[in-house]
Amino acid sequence: MNLDEYRRAARDWLLENAPKDDSPDIAQAKDFMARLYDAGYSGITWPERWGGQGLTQAEERAFAAEARDFALPTYVFSIGLGMTGPTLVDRGSDEQRERFVRPLLRGEEIWCQLFSEPGAGSDVAGLQTRAERDEARGARGDSWIVNGQKVWTSVAQHADWGLLLARTDVDVPKHRGLTMFVVDMRHPGVTVRPLRDMTGRAHFNEIFFDDVPIPDEHRVGDVNDGWSVAVTTLLHERLSISAGVGMSGQKDDPTSLEALRQAVDTTDPLVRDELVELHVRSRALALFNQRLAQETRAGLFPGARGSAAKLLLAELTLFRADLATRLVGPASVVGDSPLAHAISLAPAMALGGGTNEIMRNIIGDRVLNLPPEPRVDKTVPFKDLKVGTQG
Fold first, then answer.
1. Exposed, middle or buried, 330 (CB in 10 Å: 0-12/13-18/19+)?
2. Where are the domains of the chain?
3. Tens of each residue's pLDDT in the chain, 391 residues
4. What is the dihedral of CA 255, 257, 262, 263, to 10 degrees?
5. What's the CA gap between 288 and 341, in Å, rounded?
6. Yes or no: is domain 111-225 CATH 2.40.110.10?
7. pTM as predicted
8. Taking the CB of residue 233, how many other CB atoms lie within 10 A of it?
9. What would be the CATH architecture of the domain defined by 3-105?
């Protein structure tokens, strides 16, 4: 079918299948994802070999344009769809792709990402969670034992699997001693605890690993090459955050242009100027994301420019929250209204997925080719560094 027919079919499907319940539970969300996949609208551009639809960015954009009018229960799958799944497609083994990708796309299994630690936030490579060979199971080295802690992990309370970055060698510089694994989040040695933020809700979690075994076939990439795998994940993360992968659309966003137009006096020329500025910023980000997506499909991976997209989204989110506060007034931040919640949550976008300051450093270093700041920690063995709680 042509693109117009595809878009009409997508809208007809959404009208019939989008949940009417404002707060569907996990079982209902999984049921919706299964139907979304079976209808051909999950993994639209993913390779057919691994369970995707094998279509183009044109179809994906067409579906996304229609989905914006619906509140879809897809947030809990956003980490898998935008970050861990694409990493497995790019860097996983054929066995890992065969085992994990299709269940991820159908919503049968939920994923989280396990990078940040209490002493390693912006400096991800300074992490201390250890993965050591399980000597008790013989000398073949076919299993690992993980101990440590992760923090700021979204949807971990629902996750079946996690993409875990752990230290496997302390005798080399910090970036060279990391390995990536797929970890079973349901293992008894994994403890998930919610973390409440200033919205009063638990958007994140802290995770503890106590002697958690991981089979070597769940290692993603080579031993001690985890940093390059992590870079792949971080690039996908920043692109997916900026593009809103796995988000529920704009229908119920109280800081969107459409919502603010309904809430304020649009006859005031100063208000109209503010709303025009919001439209321009939103459209600029959408076009930038579209360009990055087209380049990716053409085999030109955007690399560090994904950090620019993420930075633009963070600044747009803060601008929208500030604009909503100024235009709506004190009532916008009172109580537990959707608008108050969105405004309180807005600063998190400038932190999650890399702080705005880190994004600017990456852009300056890798996009603009400005001279980087001097760093001695890239050549010193990790065991000799004073990082986090290691002193």
1. exposed
2. 3-105, 111-225, 249-354
3. 888 899 999 999 999 999 887 778 999 999 999 999 999 999 998 999 999 999 987 888 889 889 988 889 999 999 999 999 999 999 999 999 999 999 999 999 999 999 999 988 788 999 999 999 987 654 456 899 999 999 999 999 999 999 999 999 999 999 999 999 999 999 999 999 999 887 778 888 999 999 999 999 999 999 999 999 999 998 888 777 766 655 544 456 888 888 888 888 888 999 999 999 999 999 998 888 888 877 776 777 777 888 888 899 999 999 999 999 999 988 888 888 888 888 988 998 888 778 899 889 989 988 899 998 787 788 899 999 887 667 6
4. 40
5. 28
6. yes
7. 0.85
8. 24
9. Orthogonal Bundle (1.10)
